[in-house]
Request: fold
Amino acid sequence: MEAGRPVSLLKKGIDDLKETWPGEPDRFLETHVDPFLLWCVKQGSSDITFQSSRPVFNEIHGTLYPGTYRSLDAADMASIVTRLYGTEALAILAGGADIDMSYEVMVDRFNRTRFRVNMTAILTDGRDGIQITMRTLPSAPPTMKQLNIEQEIIDAWRPRQGLVLITGPTGSGKSTLLAAGNRMLIEDPHGCGKMLTYEAPIEFTYDSVQSRRSLVAQSEIPRHLPSFAAGVRNALRRKPEIILVGEARDRETISAAIEAGQTGHCVYATCHTTGVAATIRRMVSTFEPSERTERAFSLMETIRLIVTQTLVPKVGGGRVALREYMEFSEERREELLDMSFEKWPVELMRMVEQYGKTMEGSARDAFNAGLIERRYYLLYAKGSKLKEDDPAVAPIAPEETAPAH
Reply:
């Protein structure tokens, strides 16, 4: 120790900026939470994790750094949970439910810092504990230019009607890409009309995005409505031009999104899949075998664009986005509708290479530009060369005939 300060757990040099909180108290009280969060944001943290019996960790450019020297005990966690949600949070977590919410810290009268929050009960050191994950959200959504979005994606982003899907693993920037797309639509000189969003929780707000021809209304699930499917049904009664569904993860939500796309609306949604072919396969497979043919063809008639995104460590620090994408033009949809839907995954692998961009192609471009290391290029090049028996491109199971009684 030096002058009462703990020996740094980090490397000297650039990592000195990521040392533990200078204002760390002997005991976390509710009044300490907001100042600590603002310090984490100033350090460049994208995700902050509080966990029982562990120090707080900041994720900075994909690497974890301790934000406190001392591990948090039950009293610390109780103060933090109560500050973020309220006194009933501990009872909710003890009852076997997790909590998804948003939280904001007012820096001053005109500025605020927002977070997406998940609280989950865990087992730690043989006892019940809590993990809180907080994602730092920018005060305003980024622009497509700031994210270096490919021009082909920008050109295909606003179809007249239909379904646009943004896919990728957790933490791949799907919500950020959607927010940038929303901002582009709102700032269009002709506006976007009425836009309704249904999110869990609301991550980006559009208060600072100015337009006289756009009206945005955001609803949080389950705070304002019970489910994404209920949100889509609600939207159909409010005459919107654009509907954003935070996540199409179950049969009911996917069905509602397809119906909205078929009835003249432009629908945007996210999905936890990797690749264009895998996305179609996953969405069709959520339906019962007896209804897959009908639902598959409804989906293909509705789909307009699929973008899969992942984040890879960047040379020199930070991360760079790799994207696989394809626009579903009328000709491509007709080509797929003329064949059995069981063959779509394999055919889509060919189509993406011919008409869109594969993850391998995106990784190659990033490597050639000196943005990523060779090992990451080889990883995604290998991952994109799937065999036909790979689960991602295996034929979709056809309808099953109901057994005779």
